[in-house]
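In keeping with the milestone schedule agreed at the kick-off meeting, the structural modelling team has produced records for the first pair of proteins. Each record is given below as a sequence line and a structure-token line. The laboratory manager (R.T.) confirmed that both were archived under the project's standard naming scheme.
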Amino acid sequence: MAVRLGVWLACVVCSNASAAPTRVKIDLKNEAALTKAGFEREGSATGQTTFVHGKLSLRTGGYEEWTQRTGFADDAGNPPGWAVEARLRLDAPCDKLGPTLVIADGNASLRVQLTDHQLVVYQPALRIDIGPTTAMRTYRVVRTGNSFAILVDGKSVWTGQGAAGSGRGSLMFGYIGGACADNRSTWDYLAYETTPVAPLAWPPRDEWHPAVTADALLAALAPATRVPARVAPADVPCIAIFALDSATRDLLPLAYDAIGEKSPASDLRALHMVIGPEGIKQAQRVLDDWTRPIKQPVCDPAPGAPCGPGSPDRTPAEVPAIEPDLASALRTATQWGEHPFNAELTTDIVARAYVAARVAKVPGAAAAAERLGARLAALATHPARCGL
């Protein structure tokens, strides 16, 4: 059973202001408690989880994993960061990789494993001698901003970066296979600390991460267009939405016009608002229709006749220089709900596309930037759901 220490911030006035950090300690007294905390088991035929005196024991000759996808991941992306802590011992130690923690927060992941005397970090694989692991010891993994640290019994043993990743976060502990012939360990507790933020009424949580800040998005857009000095917390999603929509339906058509490709420009302008999963998918379909290479016929000569060099695959239309970046921005936008960095990355890509179009002297690019700036300025009136 998960025990929350601290107070969750209620959405009285919806904003993305951070609340006090909270600590969730996982009760390891029985399987029902783990299930209630959102953990699911996956194990091999030799895998076994038992509970004795309030502790969890794992034993396997293969793999035995417990994974939580809702809980830690819900708030892991919130600033200033998170911590995951486990206290355990190895009961059948060997010098191969044993008990494992895999922590993914929707932006980056870190995998930590133990041997009989080492802590092994995968970024890349690095072995750190920490002394015997057969007694109960406390392992703590901390992320602050983009920096990661691991502490053993309160002493820092490693600092570095996690592996880049995206998608839904998760928290896993157990054995992933390939370790000792007989893997056994006892876990006293597992805990994590995150800082919740108040949810926004809109967009839905799976489409937008409430920890995204106006400052980050406005700073990304500042080189491209005029931005307001401040934006109300409830209006923050509008910044990213306006940036992506304007780039897709206004700037990119101008870039197609500049190279004489009127049809894709027309299709992009005809799109409905690029907002939400369906709007993003529609924009991606249009780009895919005009940028997917067309396979050329394969040479099938008469017997004894040689094949010529053949024609290279080609796209249905010439592709403007900023198109690949904006296609990337659309892909990243599908993950806005997973981590704040995704909205920041989308907005940064869009800003760079506006700057690149102006540098390339795309006709109308400067005016397009002004139109985006005007949309952002309109947020001062706090239009409900961005006025859409």
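The second protein of the pair:
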Amino acid sequence: MKLNLGCGDRHQAGYVNVDICEPADIVFDLSQFPWPWETSSVDEVISDDFIEHIEGDKKIALMNELHRVLVPDGLLKIQVPTTDGPGAWCDPTHKSWWHQNSFWYYTKGNPAYERFHKPYGITACFHVQTEKLWEWEGMPLLTLELRAVK
């Protein structure tokens, strides 16, 4: 199974398109945990301009849930506006703010992960496959491909 989370009107063929309202294939509030998918049941997740719409105090729960549903070595594709520019701050529906260093806390081998994952309650563990900073209409975006370590 492949999921396109927070799809809005950008449906992806071959994916289950999920959002809080129609026209999603599945209408579900993704800020509520646990999600309706079994542990290790999803091969790939697209999160294109979605995670910044989840409350900041739920960042760890969000990353833990993404990791939970992915199969071992499952692929997580994230695109998010970074705090390096106005894109993160200008949208009034953004509820959390991300920077490329935010993902250190979920990356196996990174000193931030190794030191803090247990006391912070982080069960998510990923390897960064690709990381790219780029701009769209003057707004810095971060695109990551992460592999679930289980």
